[in-house]
Amino acid sequence: MTDPQPARPRLILGSGSPRRLELLAALGITPDAVTPPDIDEDPRKAELPRDYCARIAAEKLAAIPAGEGDIALCADTTVALGRRILGKPADEAEARRFLDLLSGRRHRVYTALAMKRGDKTWARITESRVRMKRLSDTEREGYLATGDWQGKAGGYSIQGPAGAFIPWISGSHSAIVGLPLAETAQLLSAAGYPVWGPR
What we know:
By secondary structure, the chain is of the alpha/beta class. It has one domain (11-190): Maf protein (Alpha-Beta Complex), CATH 3.90.950. Helices cover 30% and strands 23% of the residues. The protein contains six helices and seven strands, in the order βαβαββαββαβαα. Strands 1, 2, 3, 4, 5, 6 and 7 form a seven-stranded mixed sheet that branches. The longest helix has 14 residues, at 49-62. 37% of the residues are buried.
C-alpha cells in the first residue's frame, strides 16, 4: 500500500502583475491566492539598481501575510541604465524621456525573486542585458499611443509592441517579462512545491 501524497502547500503570489500570472501558468501553476503588496517603491538616495531590486522584492515578501505552511512568492523587475533606475513612468512625458534614454543603447534588466515558507526564506536575482534599436520619432510616438508603457519598468514591455524595438538580449527572456522561470521553478521545488509532480 502506497503512502498518501502529502498535501500540496498553498501558493500565494505577492504581485498584481498579469504577466507573472501568465508566466506561472506556463509552468502549469495557478496560485491559490494573489495578494499584491502595498509598499513604498521609491529608490533610496544613491541606491544602486541591483540593490534596489533585491530590497523591493524582500520588502514585498515581508508585506505578504502567509500561513505557516504556505509558500509566498514575490518578485521585482527593475530597468537600469548605468547606475540610473528607470522605474514605472508617472505619465506619457516621462515614458517618452525613458524611451529617448534607451534608444540605440544597451541596458540591464534585473529581476529579483523572494520566497518564504514558514521561517525559511529564499532569494535570487537575475541580470539580463537588452539592446533597444534607435527609435525614430514615428516609432516612439506610435508606441506611446498604444498605452503599453503604462505600469512598465523603463516605460516598455518586451512582450508587447515594443518587442519590435529589441533586436538583441542576453539572459532570460522570462525574467525580462517579470518572472525568471528557471529560478522560479528551482525555488518552488526547494520549498516543497510539486512543480513537476501531481498537484
